[in-house]
Amino acid sequence: MNSLKLPIQKMNSLKGTFAKAALEGVTEARARIFGHVLNPTGERSPHKILRKKLIGEKVAQWYPYDIKKDDPLVMAREEQERLSKLEMLKRRGKGPPKKGQGRRAVKRNK
Fold first, then answer.
1. Sequence-ordered list of residues with C-beta below 8 angstroms from that of 86, at least 6 positions apart, any chain
2. How far apart are the first and last CA of the chain?
3. In 25, 31, 93, 103, which residue has its Cα 20 to 30 A from 48's Cα atom?
4. Alpha carbon separation from 92 to 42, 68, 83, 97 (Å, rounded)
5. Where are the chain's structural domains?
6. Distance between CA 49 and CA 59 in Å, rounded?
7. pLDDT per residue over 1-29, tens digit each?
8. What would the pLDDT profile of 56-97 be if each residue is shown by its tens digit?
9. How far apart, in whole angstroms, are the C-alpha atoms of residue 75 and residue 65?
10. Could you say which DSSP state residue 46 is in?
11. pTM (2 decimals)?
């Protein structure tokens, strides 16, 4: 009785091996035909992210064009406001430190 089971088990394992090989071949062919990326090991892959369309142009189109950057009068006025604010802060002692006298330089010298 045991001698009859042995050939049947070998046949089943051989049949399973052939079925597995055929399934792998079909999967590879399907991936090649439809342009899919085959990942049989299931490892992480950036393909899903790289497959998406880029949206930078759409985002840039959403925001209106800034006219202030083209007008030299507006830019000069903003620069003058910045300089006057900086001067006011310096008079109060709240301006930026001189080069080499900031917090990092003080820490390094201690």
1. 95
2. 90
3. 25
4. 63, 31, 14, 13
5. 15-52, 65-95
6. 18
7. 455 555 666 667 778 888 888 888 898 99
8. 888 888 888 888 888 899 999 999 999 999 999 999 999 888
9. 15
10. T
11. 0.38
